[in-house]
Structures are given as structure tokens and as C-alpha cells.
Design brief:
Radius of gyration: 31 Å
Largest sheet: 9 strands, antiparallel
Shape: elongated
Oligomer: single chain
Strand order of the largest sheet: 4-3-2-1-6-7-8-9-5
Structural class: alpha+beta
Number of domains: 2
Distance between the termini: 117 Å
Length: about 325
């Protein structure tokens, strides 16, 4: 073959390669535009159920009830609406960005084994709207830290989606864990075990509206100026870590520790009762609304929040300074 023929053949090979790369790029561009669930966006307003299942059990079963997302598997306890909406929106926009393995023996490395396998790290997400349903298995986060591996049930092809998808870590993770729904402007005082009281003193009785400790000794100052108001905030912002069971409280080995009443402008009070057993702390909530969901459950709280319900009078007061002992007095 002459040199000119070799050059022509090389140029032809290059042209073929460039053409293939361009057509491959077009196909890839077209592929990247594909959504995980192409029909979900048109039906998103009709979605009324969303669940997340792991090999270990059900992590989330959210149902929409009167416009509020609730945990259907936990007696319709309220969920954090924004987290459900974020998850739903991320699934609506999720794309199939890059094809990965289609070999079942490699699924475990991507966290995409079937849930029937004991060590599966996958989470099966199911979205339902009337008579429509969408499902996807979500696996490990990509090693780059961006994106998540996924595949659709009954399909062998796995994918990398660069969409950020947040899932609950356990069955309590996305519950609305705020124990109380009381506006601070409605609170007139706190009562600890009916022994000491933090009361809101109206503005006409002082230069400005302020919190006072009814049992404060005249010769003792508060530990710091805002300790009373901070304590009111601490009670109003209590959070639980799990729902132990529906009421009543377990009777075995549980000791009544303290009771805090929250008084309001309506003249009615909400009462928080703390029980303890070894390292566990339980709280009962009794609101004036007997049908309130908080009245139906036994809540487990951390020691951090339990301590807020056990404050003694001395907690609010400046420590008493011990008198200095002279050297002569300390010598036997």
C-alpha cells in the first residue's frame, strides 16, 4: 500500500471514529434527559401515599390526611411535611444519568440487592396516587459523594442518578417530634411540681412585661437575667426521640419523677409528666384538647430533655458563696 493510500485510510478511520463519538454523544445527551418516573410529575398532586421499606422493616408509611402527611403505621401521628415534600420532589426530578451493572452478583456492591436478602442495604420506595404506583430501589451513595445508585424492581439494569435523595434513617426519624404546639405569647406561667412557679408579670405591674420566680428568696439573685424566660422556652421546645407506645404508661418499674404545668391566657393548663426507669425517660402530655394526638401516646425523651422537667429551685438561683475560712480557723 502506497503512502498516500495509508494516509487516506487513516483519515477515513479518524472520520469514522469522530462520527461514532458524535453519535454516541447525541445518544448520551438524549439518554440523560430521561426521567426516572416520566409520568410522576403530571400526577404528583394526586399522590396520597409514600413508603420506604428496608430489609429490616418499614421505615416510613406516609399518608396524606386533610392536607397533612401522617404516619399511617403509627396511628396517623403527624410527620414533618417538608421532608415528605422534599423526598417526593426529588423523585419527580430524579434522572437516570449513567447506566451501571446489570449483573445480579454485583448488586450488593451498589446496595441494590433485593430486600428478600438478609443483608440487603437497599430501600424500596413506593409512591401511590389513586390507582397508579411507582417503585424504585435506592442503594449506596456514589463514591464521588454526588448521586445515588438505583434500579427499578424486577429489572436488572442499575443506574447512577445524580439527584440528591434524602431518606429516613428509622421509623421515628421523620415524625414531627415537637411535643407541644403552644404559642409562647399565650403562656402566663410554669409550675414545677406545684412547688415553685415562673410567672409572667404584666407590664402594668412593672416597667415592662417580665418573668418572675414566685418563690425567689429576697436575699438571693437569679443565676442570670434571662434564666426564667429561657426555661419557658426550654419547656415549649421539648422534643421526643421515639414513640414508646400508645397510652397508658407501662406500670412496671416506672417511677413518677416530676410534673410541669404550663398555664395559658385561656385559664387552661397543659401538663407534662415525667417517668423514669433506669436509663429511660418517658413523658405523658395532657392538653386541654382531649382529642389531641399528644394525649394518646407515651413519649421517650433523651436525658437532655428530661433534665428540663426536673429543675429544682436552686437551678434558677445564683450559687451561695461559701464564707472564706481564715488560716487560723482551719488549723486544728
Amino acid at each position: 500500500m502506497t503512502r498516500s493510500n495509508l494516509i487516506i485510510a487513516a483519515l477515513a478511520a479518524v472520520a469514522i471514529l469522530v462520527g461514532w463519538l458524535l453519535s454516541s454523544g447525541d445518544r448520551q445527551s438524549e439518554f440523560e434527559s430521561q426521567l426516572l418516573f416520566p409520568e410522576l410529575q403530571a400526577n404528583v398532586d394526586s399522590v396520597d401515599s409514600l413508603s420506604v421499606q428496608a430489609a429490616s422493616g418499614l421505615l416510613l408509611h406516609a399518608s396524606k390526611l386533610d392536607g397533612q402527611w401522617v404516619a399511617a403505621n403509627q396511628a396517623n401521628y403527624p410527620l414533618e411535611n417538608d421532608k415528605i415534600i422534599r423526598l417526593l420532589n426529588s423523585l419527580v426530578s430524579a434522572q437516570l444519568d449513567s447506566a451501571k451493572t446489570a449483573k445480579p452478583e454485583n448488586f450488593a456492591r451498589l446496595g441494590l440487592s433485593d430486600l428478600s436478602e438478609q443483608d440487603s442495604g437497599a430501600r424500596l420506595v413506593t409512591i401511590a396516587a389513586a390507582d397508579r404506583q411507582w417503585q424504585v430501589l435506592l442503594g449506596e451513595t456514589a463514591s464521588s459523594g454526588t448521586g445515588i445508585y438505583l434500579r427499578q424492581p424486577e429489572q436488572m439494569q442499575t443506574w447512577l442518578s445524580r439527584t440528591d435523595i434524602e431518606l429516613p434513617g428509622d421509623e421515628f426519624a421523620w415524625l414531627n417530634k415537637q411535643l407541644l404546639a403552644i404559642d409562647k405569647s399565650q403562656v402566663t406561667g410554669l409550675s414545677y411540681n406545684e412547688q415553685w412557679h415562673i410567672n409572667l408579670q404584666p407590664a402594668e405591674e412593672a416597667d415592662s412585661e417580665s418573668w418572675v420566680l414566685a418563690e425567689q428568696p429576697q436575699d438571693r439573685a437569679l443565676q442570670y437575667d434571662t434564666i426564667l424566660e429561657n426555661s419557658v422556652d426550654d419547656i415549649l421546645n421539648l422534643k421526643f426521640q421515639s414513640l414508646l407506645q400508645q397510652r397508658p404508661v407501662p406500670t412496671d418499674n416506672w417511677n413518677l419523677v416530676s410534673e410541669v404545668s404550663i398555664n395559658t391566657l385561656s385559664g387552661e393548663a397543659t401538663v407534662l409528666t415525667l417517668y423514669e426507669s433506669e436509663a429511660q425517660h418517658l413523658v405523658l402530655v395532657d392538653t386541654p384538647d382531649k382529642n389531641a394526638v399528644q394525649n394518646q401516646w407515651v413519649f421517650e425523651v433523651s436525658s437532655f430533655y428530661a433534665d428540663r422537667l426536673k429543675r429544682e429551685l436552686e437551678y434558677f438561683l445564683e450559687p451561695v458563696e461559701e464564707p472564706e475560712t481564715s488560716e487560723a480557723e482551719s488549723t486544728p
